[in-house]
Amino acid sequence: MTKHLKEVERLRKIIEAFPKVTITVLGDLVADEFVYGEISRVSREAPVLILKHRERTVLPGGGANAVNMYVDRDIDDRMARTRRRPIPSGRMGPTAVLAFGILLSTAATAMCAATCIGSKNG
Questions:
Q1: How far apart are the C-alpha atoms of 76 and 31, rounded to whole Å?
Q2: Which domain holds residue 111?
Q3: Residue 85 gets which letter from DSSP?
């Protein structure tokens, strides 16, 4: 068996084991990036606008989702789209969701400050 086939077989076994494994994600950090500039032209190769880059801003954004769930907790159980969120489904209490959102926002802000300060233009 070639090395490639062995790797493919190993990958197949790992993927087949997924339904038997429980994975818990405690949180992730999301950074929203905003790019500013002026449109300088349309590309000759494709109908795409070419931006003359002026500056960029990176802001933490993930914690806002959790805070939004806390704010909308009174209406989430009435909408099919949001009924399965942590608060209306009973998986988490409102205080825990708010604390998680604040913690996530604080961590993302600290990470953003540590990696983005001094990089106004990327």
A1: 25
A2: 26-116
A3: S
CB distance 67 to 77 below 8 Å: no
User: Is residue 30 a contact partner of residue 60, using CB atoms and an 8 Å limit?
Assistant: yes
Tokens of 99: 């604390």
User: 74-83 pLDDT, tens per residue?
Assistant: 999 999 999 9
Alpha carbons 68 and 61: distance in angstroms, whole number: 11
Report the predicted TM-score, pTM, of the whole model to 2 decimal places: 0.54
What residues are paired with 51 via a beta bridge? 39
Residue 60: inside a domain: yes
**Which 3 state secondary structure label does DSSP give 27?**
coil
For residues 39 and 26, is the Cβ–Cβ distance under 8 A? no
Residue 17 lies in a domain: no
